[in-house]
Amino acid sequence: PEMRAVRETFGDDMPPIASTKSLTGHAQGAAGVNEAIYSLIMMEGDFIAASANIENLDPAFEGVPVVRERIDDAGLVSVMSNSFGFGGTNATLIFDRFEE
What we know:
3 helices; two-stranded antiparallel sheet; single chain; Peroxisomal Thiolase, Chain A, domain 1; two-stranded antiparallel ribbon; alpha+beta; globular
């Protein structure tokens, strides 16, 4: 269901998708905070961390640009952090680069 929502939102203009959970583990109640921090670090450093330990993608991700190798000079201006929790607890944070 989550990937369907992402597809409906972005259509043919799908951004690169990466997951940090495979790098850091599940932090239970702090998972959303961790993901937000990692997203800001990537935006500040202009890179996208690779998703780790991907052997077989779920068919729902067919055609989706899943990041399997680090992307440097990514040109990040905005970052979206999705957190999908147990029992349907879901949150999305969108961060935009601040320009003075």
